[in-house]
Amino acid sequence: MNITRENIDKLNAVVKVDIAKDDYAPKVEKILKDYRKNANIPGFRKGHVPMGMVKKQYGQAVLVDEVNKLLQENLNKYLTEEKLDVLGNPIPKEQEDFDWNKDEYTFEFEIGLAPEFEVDLDLEKPVAKYNIVADDKMIDSQIESIQKQYGKLISKEEVEEGDIVAGTFKNEEEGIENETSIELEKIKGKRNLNKFVGAKAGDVITLKTKSLFEDDHDLQQQLKVEHDKAHDLDIEVEFTISEVNKRELADLDQELFDKLFGEGKVTSVTELKEKIKEDAEKQFTQQSDQQLMNDVTEALIEKTDFELPKEFLQKWIRTVGEKPLTEEEAVEEYEKSEKGLRYQLIEGKIVKEHDIQVDFEALKAFAKEKIKEQMAQFGQMDPADKELDDIAARILSNQDEVKRLSEQLVNEKLLNFYKENMKFDEKEVTYDDFVKEIYN
């Protein structure tokens, strides 16, 4: 067998594979002999079928199968040994006059080569790095939310602002009949709110659905209608009041603190605020880190300019899926995926040049940390090491989980690398300001 390569340009090449009879004949002969031993053909005893008949019936199928195996094994070996950084997979070139009845065969493959380029982390316009802080307004709002959650409802006769009103929405034409509870603070507009104020159990209120709630999702939930329907729904509904309640906020006392954080972990309102601030900013860090990663990715793609074997990749995309694509579909798919491919190459270069690796022990430690975070959400704050080791072992026995966790860990290591090696425009913002700035 002989394998040669012809470079068309820096990004495209053709690999030629010559296969001689000596490369495949011994294997084909052995397989056919095994077939002969086990063949059950009427008129012949098992193991005594003429070899000519076996070759006539199975010969070419075995030949094609063995040549293809040889071809794939040796082509992959060649690409590995030559250290060729290929994009996609080799595409076989069509041969109109190919003949399996010959003794020697030649196959040609088009390959796309990864470009050579350098990654410069020194950006002309530094990326924003957000430090999101929990301000007093957010902390107070969170405390009020906790007090409502752990508070109690007190029944009353007449509706006032801020009450919770139970009842049934109804519209026969639209098939709406849903029993629910409304927090009046979610009602939009003074006119709608005034229809409730002063009402009692048994009263029927007629309401227009358009702009009834501050959020369309609330209308969807209250009427139990589809999301798309709720968005443009403009009808009259009747709401029959069945019950009026006032929410009494829970006291900020030790009993509440222990329910929230465990016995004795928080002992005062000041400590409660500090804990809420700490937990909130920990969650904010995850969001700001994700935004930083997104922005660095975009900036590096924009700055790092290199050519790709575009035509080859579009041709490869046409053939790689279960269903072949048209030329137009392949061009569209390439345009969708080009940015991702560019960053994949940039990331791969950074990982290789700066030796960003993931070994098993690091992966195991990372898995245990993720398990601890999940357990903490369910109140298990201090799991034993053996329990963590056992759960981690089960997770890491699943190859899909290993791949997922490895990608997460590499992503985390890359983010830390960027933080250490790039200059950023540091911004301290509240969460509301962060949302306004990012999502406009």
Describe the structure.
- The chain has 440 residues and is an alpha+beta fold.
- 52% of the residues lie in helices and 19% in strands.
- It contains 14 helices and eleven strands.
- The strands form three sheets. Strands 6, 7, 8, 9 and 10 form a five-stranded antiparallel β-sheet that branches. The protein has a four-stranded antiparallel β-sheet with strand order 1-2-4-3, sandwiched between helices.
- The longest helix has 35 residues, at 269-303.
- The chain starts with a strand and ends with a helix.
- The model has no long low-confidence stretch (mean pLDDT 92).
Q: How many runs of DSSP E, i.e. beta strands?
A: 11
Order of helices and strands: EEHHEEEHEEEHEHHEHHHHHHHEH
Query: With helices defined by DSSP (H or I, 4 residues minimum), what is the helix count?
Result: 14
Largest sheet composition: 5 strands, antiparallel
Q: Helix amount, in percent?
A: 40-55%
Strand content: 15-25%
Low-pLDDT parts are: none
Overall spatial form: elongated
Mean pLDDT: 92
SS content category: alpha+beta
Domain Trigger factor ribosome-binding bacterial: 1-145
GO molecular function, one term: peptidyl-prolyl cis-trans isomerase activity
Protein name: Trigger factor
EC number: 5.2.1.8
